[in-house]
Amino acid sequence: MSNIPVDGLSAAELFSSGKGLTYDDFIVLPGYIDFQASEVDLETNVTRNIKIKRPLVSSPMDTVTEWKMAAYLALLGGVGIIHYNNTIDAQTEQVRKVKRFENGFIIDPVVVSPEATVGEVEALKERLGFCGVPVTEDGTLGSKLVGIVTNRDIDFEKDLSRKVSEVMTTDLVVAKEGIDLHGANQILKKSKKGKLPVVDDNFHLTALLSRKDLLKNKDYPYASKSNGKQLIVGAAVSTRPEDRDRVEALVAAGADIILIDSAQGYSAFQIDMLKFIKENFPGVDVIAGNVVTMAQSKALIEAGADALRVGMGPGSICIAQNMMAVGRPQASAVYHCARYAKDFGVSVIADGGIQGIGHIAKAMSIGASAVMAGYLLAGTSEAPGEYFYENGMRVKRYRGMASVEAMEVGGGKRYLNEEVNKNVVVPQGVSGTVLDRGSLVDYVPYLMKGLQQSYQDMGYINNKLVREALYSDKLRFEHRTAAAQAEGSVHSLYSYREPKFGIR
């Protein structure tokens, strides 16, 4: 393989034109393959001190990341950052749920009271797709368990006004709090029940186990776990002084990563918050940002950042570049920030503009240690919110944290807005809907298998080698004209069937 002629451009040449580039503006040239795609190791440093097996981070948006997204993404090898459009108590409880999560146990089951009607349970079944609902004295988790209502109890019940207390099953098989998954599974098998309530010594409901979920469960060999064997989770805070109390509460709740959430991270406010966290909680890694230039990166690295969140305005719901006239095309931002940060052992997380496998691969090829996804994950079943139908398509709501709706409940904290004239709102994001993508359990393995195949085409078996090839100029690139972009997508067909998870 000696004397190989060199094609294309190095990354330094590609990004030296002075023109801002996005992911679709370039393509990676192929390399030599001498390994199977399944052999590709995607492990990466998401921060200076924390490694994850899959380079995927969920965005701290209120339509993307709450405890369920964070827990399942961690099980699948990534990490979730829980949003702060809520109270301190609410956010810390989300963190605690992830830290105490065990695969197989439902720690926030749907619960009804004895006064609920059969019709209300039928509506829950229609909306959520399952039955087998615990009944507690006051209809809340943590209250005394008095029964369970299943399909068997209501399938032939014609009077929808009957109370649950009249039809529910009261001959209960339960497990005591503290039981492990194996022990609970044995009880389920022996009892042949579909659901197993978990109760404390006072018979208060604390969790639920589902036979159906157990049958679906797979091993999660890539799970992101701390030394204490708990799932890794991050949480976002603003730069405002009052959020110092939030930081303290989140660390006490077990957050492994604190992300300082600011649309423009090159500020005295961010640096002050960053220094406060590193001085008072040195055991917690901090993701700082957002940044798009080397000067911004330098300031935050000097203040103690363990990772940089890179991107200003490339997200699908973001209109900041048009509204503010400030930002940078995302590929240029990632390349220049990552090139600077590498000498300090600081990771770069490419935030925004990720539309599919190809964009993940391109972000990693130009220096990112991981990508942060909002749009990509918002339509999954683990994202907050309920599905509904729009023009015949099953969708979920997705909104930018700078949309009018999000700012009304706290999203504006990331934009350094002064509380001078609350009647004047300048949005930097929009609200919309995204298509149903199904469960993360199916979707993330699809994305990561695609990324492994991309690395195989590049000719590199792990992130370390991709990075070495990038900075030694062995990894080669080429500009793509508009015609080349059109050629590389679906064209010339009368019709075609879209793949399950799309083609971007």
SSE map:
Blueprint lengths: L10 H4 L11 E3 L15 E2 L5 E2 L3 E3 L8 H9 L3 E4 L5 H12 L5 E2 L11 H11 L4 E4 L8 E5 L1 H4 L9 H4 L7 E2 L4 H11 L3 E5 L5 E6 H6 L17 E4 L5 H11 L3 E4 L7 H13 L4 E7 L2 H9 L4 E4 L9 H5 L5 H12 L5 E5 L5 H9 L4 E4 L1 H4 L9 E3 L2 E7 L4 H4 L23 E5 L4 H19 L4 H9 L5 E3 L2 H6 L17
Parallel strand pairs: 4-5, 4-17, 5-12, 9-10, 12-13, 13-14, 14-15, 15-16, 16-17
Antiparallel strand pairs: 1-21, 2-3, 6-11, 7-8, 10-11, 18-19, 19-20
Helix pairs in contact: 2-3, 3-9, 11-13, 14-17
How would you describe this structure to a colleague?
This protein folds into 2 domains: 11-102 and 222-487, Aldolase class I (TIM Barrel); 105-216, CBS-domain (Roll). The chain is 32% helix and 17% strand. It has 19 helices and 21 strands. The protein has helices spanning 11-14, 67-75, 88-99, 118-128, 151-154, 164-167, 181-191, 211-216, 243-253, 268-280, 294-302, 320-324, 330-341, 357-365, 375-378, 404-407, 440-458, 463-471, 482-487; strands spanning 26-28, 44-45, 51-52, 56-58, 79-82, 105-106, 133-136, 145-149, 175-176, 195-199, 205-210, 234-237, 257-260, 285-291, 307-310, 347-351, 370-373, 388-390, 393-399, 431-435, 477-479.
